[in-house]
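Could you help me review a protein record that somebody else here produced? Here is the record exactly as it was handed to me:
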Amino acid sequence: MDVKPERCSPSTDGCDRFGSERGAQRQWDCDLSAFVPSIGKMPSSKSSSVPSNNDIKSDVSNLSELTVSNEREFAENSTTSLTEKTGYCDSVYRNAANIFQRIHNEKPQDRILISYGNEPVPALPIFRDEYSQRASYELAFSALKYQDLLENILIDSCFYPCQSISDELTSLVVVMLYDFQDRKFQARQISDEEEPIAEVREVEHYLYSFKTKLAAALARCRIKHDALSIEHILPETIRKQEQRASALPLYAWINALKISPEEVYRNLTKEGFTRVDSISDLEGYTYCLDKHCQDVLVFPSFLKEELLNLELFTDYKLLIQDKSRSLAVRSVKALLNMDDDVIVAHMGSWLTVAHISVLTNQSTSKVFVCGVKSQAKGAALKDMFRCLDCKNTVLLHEDFTEIEPTDHRLQKAKVILLLPRCSGLGVSNPIEFILSEHEDAGLLKDLFQGSVAEDKLGVLAEQQFKELVHATHFNKVQAIVYCTCSIYKEENEEVVNKALEYGVEGGKVQPYRLSPPVLPVCCNSEISSDSFFKMEPSEISNCCFLAVLAREKDPSESVSVKDILARAAAKGLLEGIEIEKPSKKEEKKKKKSKAVQQRNMPKDISAQTKIAEFLGQEMVSLKSNSEISVSKAISNSEKKNLSQTNNSVQGKKMTKPVLNSSLPRMLKNAPNPSTMNKVLEKRTNIKPRAEDKMVVLKPVEIVLPPVMVPYFNPQGNKSRIAAHHYYYHWIGINSSTHGLLVPSVSKRLMKSKETLPSAVIKHPRPWL
């Protein structure tokens, strides 16, 4: 096998890299040479006319536009910076060594190659600024990923064991060795203003003295693994995770207290950005709106440095934050009414608190933040919230579980946002997550191993369950939003279901139940059958688990129109609609219209109901004064006729006399006329109630005259009524006539209709 050692040496790598850059430059020159003749239209012969000044200016302008365009494309496609790495300051190396000492892989006794000392694990260092903090975590995580490779290099180069360096400094040696090979074994540039650290300078001196041997050992390792670079030595899972982290888009939410969305769009257009429809269309200087959160914009990942230098970001008008936190904040907003307060159980990222504050009413709602113990941290947070124009945040020094549910400060709180500490294995960029959410550095070790130890997972789940149960004890709270970045069911579904089964003992509050998160736009595939929202880690987003626990609605409580409009606005249903309060005149008109509607109710519903009530009262008095027997059955034809008669009576006055065929037949056991007269006298003397006045007149005025008048003697002969056997009887309330008072005739009268005087029967209105 013909092996070329120079391809594996560090110096050759640099030549190859710069050779590829020179190749790109040659291609760039060819592109320009092909472009200049076309834009300038310069002839090839020397005798051609010289171009005018306007043509030259036009060519230069076009050339500058092309240069800017190609620079943007080169910045997008390039994965490495052209600037040489010069190393870090001494404090970064020391802090990175302390972090690595906490998270390095401890191997079994029979596999230990290098000893890291027996000193206790140091506490987390105090960082000078955000840059040094980020650099320290990145350097420690890189040393963790390549721990086996770096240990083999130290042993193969005979650097270890070193009599001059103690085992307690081994973590510092490993960290500085990774940075040394990353700089192609070039010397570090040291600033004169930097304060030197003795052990850092000592380790650096010994590493530089072994420069050649270390480079050769690295080359042999690459040949052994047939790897073009050390990145190819990493496990497949780690490489995929790093690819996701590098391609993960940037999510930024709009600070509505400082700028409107329309102004953001205009400013981005001025900066050369183009708005596209979806994340799949992001390419170059483009952005799009997130499909779940209305106030979140999405940018390509390679533009981070440029975006942070834009005025929109330096003035806190746009703020970059992971999408999972924006999903939780939007879910909280959808559950709030106009004047409700919010409890943020964990401080986590100050961006989450600021986002909630921006979406709430600054004058009537408050955002309570638990667990801000340090006064210095509290002062820094207040200054930061002041820069964002957030004026309704309240910092509490107690932890969430230390606060009593009956605390008088939290009686207006209706929603709790619970972002507990979790394993975080669904995060593609662990360093960003640790820095923003103030998580433990142990996440780096778990992410590198690809799993969490069972005992650690059990401790996390127990703490999450404790906090969720404590949140359910706040009687005034109506909803809880629970959100994690974990891929384990033990931290997600099982914690929520266990808390719901546990419930709240005692009290008269409504129980909690699962409710799907209310998001303006939500894919059905992301909502599980148990009403949980899940988003798996991918190249466009980190993992997100979201659960909303809402109290069951109390039927005795009424929701005001103001609250309904607030929730509708939170769901994005009132965009572009201005809601104004109705005037007093409009309210009076509404009341009048309601009264008219009640008066204009269908008569065959309201009248029948009131008549039934009145006749029910009459039945009681009738039973006490007479012993009238009522028939138990009526023929089907008679029922049909009676229903037709009643419908015509309730609609309008009858214009034709009722024929005998429409009357029910006489019952066998009939009362005598004197008893019936007493009943009628009692009926006329009854003082009806106000609501029954109209009802009483209808059966007397409409029903009675068509039946009685054909048999009434104008001369006052009362015996005619008895002679023709005419009387009244009551139909029960349960009958088809709805309890109306109807006349009855004897069988003999019905059979001898032809004996009645023809003049009386033919008269169209005999009662007049």
